[in-house]
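Progress note, sequence design subtask.
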């Protein structure tokens, strides 16, 4: 008897002995469709009549061209009032005719309201007396289901599949009519900018996507299965939920077996447990030993599969289920997050649910595989889902690749919404959180969780503190925090806050990267010191790049880049269409520098928990935030690469603490080399080679530093470098490079060196330096003089003084931030222009421009000839596309004029880049090469200046 039972159990697990096989009937295909914009369908019993239109599901209305044209009256979901540019006079033409919008991508059609989907389904005769469940994997938003004219129920989840038990409504062996009403009106006011529902990102779509099916099985069935790993005990605790008809008793066996998904031969012994079910819903708990567990983490994402089979007394299979899990425990130790006891440093991106081809989250493995492999290739190990929860495929891919996921319930309760008021929003957050744990809780990649993003509400602390306590007690498989951004509550297992970054919201030109002289020795230890738990920096970066108009061809789906059309048109109207590529490349190099500074500051901070970028890829809404090295399709832009990013963003990164990056030749470069190492293992007997090279890649000096042991930690000192600069005679760019010998771990920094004691005014020669366009200056020009006009502080308010320039590129964008400075995206110039012959530069901003732009006022040259090009040109925000200049040249009468709106006179002994620039301009102006081609009228120049700077006395 024992042999027979064991054999039967084995056959069951192998799928060879199955008297009642579970089956699935797909509902993909053609459905009848009827839109219900006036919401009369329920009152008129639409579920009992055929519909006039058709649609293919899975899919959305927009995908099939259903809905209305986009107009100025379109009832968007999401704030647009902040996009003041759109309502300005200069944008009037874009509001007429074929409407173009700048604040997010434009859908080809738009519909808000109920939509009814209907089809007939042949139910197999063999499904009689079986449980049948309707599965709708991803819906937006509320669904109501009718079967053969009978109401089957309603659901409104944004995070999990909508599932309906249709057992008592379907008739086996005949045609059945299924009608589904989907309503994408806001059901609970969770915040209209929440990425789960907003037109800023995935769009407020209407439809049914992912798996649409009917699933049949025994009336007594396995329901919810949760697996809780215990590494120290080398086992898993398994809770098994059963469902069955009321007033029925079932006796049988539960067979469980675990196998490794990495090793097909590694199958653990079967476990058989006798069960007796007497209630309609029963949960049993058991344990299963895993003697030598293979652990799951970012380096070794080992996964297991648990197979469960319910067998009746006659050895007939009643129900079966398979669950994938990982032997992973996440915790904290001091201010570090740990995975399986080993410290980790989170290097994350923020996914805001932007899907320009579909307008909704794809549910396929291929799509999420591309996203997550790209993240890992750029040195990241973590992904946050901002106010939304991804579908099952995302968790599956993250499990396989070893990516730590931080998932939020679908709410950004701000901008009119709030938490803690005790109403529908609070209830919905709890409900959705429970659904997330039930649906995705077994995934080892699901490591962290919060209510959502940046909450409002006077009672938020009380509500969110209780929320954290509730879920900490309920499910210990992940860490919990109140919300992304804030609040920092004592209940939090980790904090996410925005103070620890090089530019905070609203900080403008007072941020570290704009205010302080270029250096790499700062970190956030003072900011995080009060925190007793891990501190993750919130949405660092947000550094913009100029639009890549070549990207527009990729928008072949439901969303169109009319924002890019606007920006390209205004650029062309200003005569700068041919500079679009230059603007992209120059701003992109500055963007990369800014992200490097942000990430390295985090890696330099002792005891830091990690960071979440905003972002590695673009955000299409909130005024258009082009913050990524990748576009919204997770594809690279042309100015950087994954190999460059992974040098300063990786599990192991070499760092240099330098108190300055701009030097004079009477100084020395003093660098403290450190290593941040969060790899799989400690390292021993390591050698770091270093070199300083010139701009021709010639090695000037080099050496080696030895490190006996590299722990899993950051801020680990490697050694000191001291390089005397006395041998350098000319202004130059040097590069400090460090590399871990016999590895790909390397990093580098540009250093700028200028001759000490240089007297720029010694190069004045025949140049007349003026500050105003007085009649005397004009007269001298007319007579053939060479004039350097330095009008810093004298630019007219409407001709450039209102343009706030800083060193960094634009933060987020100038629309959503209400014009937060800087308004520019760096500089573009011709490094071979003779005016810059003695001021080494590339075609874009590097740190040698920091002092220059920090003491400058741009000039707006919109009224100059269209083809006129400045010598030094700031790149304006794409919302304005003004032709800006810091330096330009032209002919006035018989004379030659160069105008530079940089302060080239104040404190030059302590401002070597400005001193060097002045020297370079003067040398150029005294040479035969200074021969401007463009003739400029005096009034054209005078209108740039304030009346006191352009008077005619």
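Output:
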């Amino acid at each position: 008897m024992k042999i027979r039972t064991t054999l039967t159990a084995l056959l069951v697990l192998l799928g060879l002995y199955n008297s009642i096989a579970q089956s699935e009937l797909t509902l993909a295909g053609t459905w009848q469709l009827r839109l219900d914009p006036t919401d009369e369908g329920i009152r008129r019993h639409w579920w009992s009549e055929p519909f006039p239109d058709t649609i293919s599901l899975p899919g959305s209305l927009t995908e099939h061209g259903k809905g209305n044209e986009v107009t100025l009256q379109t009832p968007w979901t999401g704030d647009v009032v902040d996009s003041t540019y759109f309502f300005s006079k200069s944008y009037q033409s874009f509001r007429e005719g074929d409407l173009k919008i700048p604040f997010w991508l434009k859908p080809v059609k738009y519909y808000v309201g109920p939509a009814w989907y209907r089809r007939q389904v042949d139910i197999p005769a063999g499904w009689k007396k079986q449980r049948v469940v309707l599965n709708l994997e991803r819906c937006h938003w509320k669904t109501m289901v009718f079967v053969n004219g009978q109401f089957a129920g309603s659901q409104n989840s944004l995070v999990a599949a909508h599932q309906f038990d249709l057992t008592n409504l379907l008739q086996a062996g005949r045609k059945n009519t299924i009608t589904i009403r989907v309503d994408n009106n806001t059901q609970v006011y969770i915040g209209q900018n929440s990425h789960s529902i907003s037109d800023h990102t995935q769009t407020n779509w209407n439809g049914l996507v992912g798996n649409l099916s009917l699933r049949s099985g025994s009336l007594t069935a396995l329901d919810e299965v949760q697996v809780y790993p215990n590494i120290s005990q080398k086992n898993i605790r398994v809770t098994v939920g059963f469902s069955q008809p009321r007033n029925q008793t079932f006796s049988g066996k539960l067979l469980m077996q675990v196998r490794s998904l990495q090793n097909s031969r590694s199958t653990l012994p079967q476990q058989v447990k006798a069960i007796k079910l007497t209630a309609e819903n029963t949960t049993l708990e058991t344990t299963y030993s895993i003697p030598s567990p293979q652990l799951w983490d970012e380096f070794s994402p080992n996964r297991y599969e648990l197979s469960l089979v319910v067998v009746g007394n006659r050895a007939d299979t009643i129900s079966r289920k398979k669950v994938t899990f990982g032997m992973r425990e996440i915790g904290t130790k001091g201010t570090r997050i740990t995975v399986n006891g080993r410290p980790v440093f989170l290097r994350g991106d923020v996914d805001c649910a932007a899907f320009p081809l579909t307008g909704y989250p794809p549910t396929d493995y291929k799509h999420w595989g591309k996203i997550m492999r790209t993240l890992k290739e750029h040195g990241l190990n973590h992904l946050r889902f901002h106010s939304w929860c991804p579908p099952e495929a995302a968790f599956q891919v993250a499990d396989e690749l070893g990516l730590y996921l931080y998932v939020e319930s679908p709410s950004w309760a701000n901008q009119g919404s709030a938490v803690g008021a005790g109403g529908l929003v609070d209830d919905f957050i709890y409900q959705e959180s429970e659904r997330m744990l039930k649906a995705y809780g077994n995934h080892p990649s699901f490591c962290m969780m919060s209510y959502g993003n940046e909450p409002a509400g006077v009672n938020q602390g009380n509500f969110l503190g209780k929320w954290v306590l509730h879920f900490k007690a309920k499910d210990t498989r992940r860490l919990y925090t109140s919300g992304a951004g804030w609040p920092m509550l004592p209940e939090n297992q980790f904090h996410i806050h925005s103070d620890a970054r090089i530019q905070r919201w609203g900080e403008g030109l007072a941020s570290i990267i704009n205010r302080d002289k270029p250096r790499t020795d700062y970190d956030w230890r003072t900011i995080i010191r009060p925190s007793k738990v891990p501190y993750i920096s919130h949405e660092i970066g947000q550094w913009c790049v100029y639009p890549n108009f070549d990207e527009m061809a990729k928008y072949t789906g439901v969303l169109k880049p009319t924002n890019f059309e606007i920006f390209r048109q205004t650029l062309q109207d200003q005569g700068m269409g041919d500079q679009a590529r230059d603007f992209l490349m120059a701003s992109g190099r500055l963007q990369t520098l800014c992200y490097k500074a942000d990430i390295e500051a985090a890696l330099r901070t002792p005891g830091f928990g990690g960071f979440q970028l905003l972002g590695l890829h673009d955000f299409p809404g909130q005024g258009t935030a082009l913050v990524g090295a990748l576009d919204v399709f997770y594809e690279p832009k042309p100015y950087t690469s994954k190999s460059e990013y992974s040098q300063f963003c990786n599990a192991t990164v070499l760092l240099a603490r330098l108190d300055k990056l701009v030097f004079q030749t009477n100084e020395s470069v003093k660098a403290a080399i450190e290593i941040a190492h969060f790899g799989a293992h400690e390292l021993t007997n390591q050698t770091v080679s270093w070199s300083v090279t010139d701009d021709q890649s010639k090695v000037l000096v080099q050496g080696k530093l030895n490190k006996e042991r590299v722990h899993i930690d950051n801020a680990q000192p490697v050694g000191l470098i001291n390089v005397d600069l006395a041998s350098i005679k000319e202004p130059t760019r040097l590069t400090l490079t460090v590399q871990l010998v016999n590895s790909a771990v390397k990093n580098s920094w540009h250093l700028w060196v200028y001759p000490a004691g240089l007297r720029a005014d010694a190069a004045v020669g025949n140049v007349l330096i003026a500050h105003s366009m007085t009649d005397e200056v004009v007269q001298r020009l007319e007579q053939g003089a060479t004039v350097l006009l330095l009008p810093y502080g004298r630019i007219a308010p409407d001709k450039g003084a209102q343009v706030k320039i800083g060193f960094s590129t634009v933060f987020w964008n100038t629309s959503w931030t209400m014009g937060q400075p800087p308004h520019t995206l760096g500089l573009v110039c011709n490094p071979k222009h003779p005016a810059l012959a003695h001021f080494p530069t590339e075609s874009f901003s590097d740190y040698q421009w920091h002092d220059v732009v920090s003491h400058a006022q741009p000039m707006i040259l919109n009224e100059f000839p269209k083809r006129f090009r400045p010598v030094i040109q700031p790149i304006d925000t794409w919302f304005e596309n003004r032709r800006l200049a810091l330096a330009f040249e032209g002919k006035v009468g018989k004379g030659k004029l160069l105008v530079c709106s940089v302060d080239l006179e104040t404190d030059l002994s302590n401002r070597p880049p400005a001193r060097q620039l002045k020297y370079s301009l003067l040398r150029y102006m005294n040479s035969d090469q200074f021969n401007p081609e463009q003739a400029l009228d005096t009034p054209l120049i005078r209108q740039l200046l304030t009346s006191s700077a352009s008077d005619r006395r």
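The first strand starts at residue 23 and ends at 26. Work on this subtask will continue into the next period as scheduled.
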